[in-house]
Amino acid sequence: MADLWSVYSKPVPANGRELWTLFLQCSCSTVVIGGLFYNWMFASLEYSWHLSIAMAIPFSLLLLLTLFMVHPARCVFTMIMPTLGTKQGRKLLLSTCIMIVVVNITPNIISNIKTILQIIKCICKNSSESLLNSTALLETASWQFGDAIQETVHSINIYRPMNGHFQFSLFNNSTLIYQQMHLAGEKIGRDFLAVEVLVKDSVRVGNRLVAGFSMLYLCFESTWYLKNYLTNLRFDNFYITKKLEHLAVDKKAAHLLVGSSKSLIRPTGLKLSRGEVMLCLVQAMLLTVALMLMLVVVAMDHFAFKVADTVVRKVAQFSVVPVTLNIKYNVSAGAKIGILPFLLRLFPYNELPLQVFEKSYNRSLIFSSAHCRISPPTPPNPSVVLVVGLLFCILYATVFLETYAHRLCRKIAGSFFESWEEKRAHYLYKKLSRKHKEE
């Protein structure tokens, strides 16, 4: 492995064997990165497969030529790998989580809301139909009650009603009502579909922009680090490296490294400075906010399913509601007509006979029907929650591994440019010597 890394990090291969070894290493890296690039575009960013292939093949060929021919580009490409464990890598993983949630959870929420709306539509349709049919009960009751009234006043000589029946008008054109309800349901369905498409498209475009910007920034950050490493001796130069230890031993000044242990860090150690710990805590808090927003969406998915499932089960248990219309009409035998009493002296009248009209009319209201087309509620997909949870575990791990990723970037740059690493070690040694003399 040391020999392979030496060939990979050399500016120019020493012989033909190293040349072919370098080409093989670059080819293997290109194949792996090209496959990941295709999967990223097709699965995560949701581009079409032919466009993903059309982008992945030229990208792979260009990457192969760049890695094989340009030594600094090879260093930048190698530093991109640990840089994925930094803030920019977290942005890529976070955008992937958002895309997974939007593509898999949001349609499920909308589907369960549609189920609830279908149930409401079914109840409204059946209840209105049952109510319209029950109005025929009023027509029958009014007709029979009118017959009873005519029989009651038949013996009166001074008054004859033209018709004792109520004029009952029934609007029984239920087709118009059903048509309006159907149009309203179709409109609600189109509105929900438009919202779903808008949300998906907006998140897809936003995710692509964030992902593209993050990838460009990854390359820029690695290039910026290498540029500062090669031009500024003070940049990221506070590590006790092997070259610095060898230099201190040769100069018989090993005590400089022991006395400066508080300001210097070993790149292979696990020690974190106070500033690095505070930065990790701040990044973890920001990541927790994003996790809470994701949990809100997941909770909405479970809540929508529970509501839809409960409504479907309760509607199936709806019983028929009986409606009873009671009419009681009673005229006693001794009743006298109290209007216009002076006319009664002029015209004889017969006392009204005992008349009793009491009857009940029964009807049933139906709120649900087996003919309603109701799609069953869709339960949440546990695999989506599992994948998002695993990605967030990786995100939290990258928060605390970011410091070590920066150290690894420095080690990679030092192995690619060993002569410059020696200059940096000499600069740090002189700085420590000057500080020791001042003290």
Automatic annotation (TrEMBL):
**Keyword terms, alphabetized:** Membrane, Transmembrane, Transmembrane helix
| Membrane-protein topology | Multi-pass membrane protein
The record's GO CC annotations read: membrane
Provide the primary localization.
membrane
Domain named Dendritic cell-specific transmembrane protein-like is located at 235-429
Pfam families assigned: DC_STAMP
Domain of life the protein comes from: Eukaryota
Q: Where in the cell is it found?
A: Membrane
Q: From the record, give the transmembrane residue ranges.
A: 20-41, 53-72, 92-111, 277-300, 383-401
The protein's name is: OCSTP protein
Q: Which organism is it from?
A: Anhinga anhinga
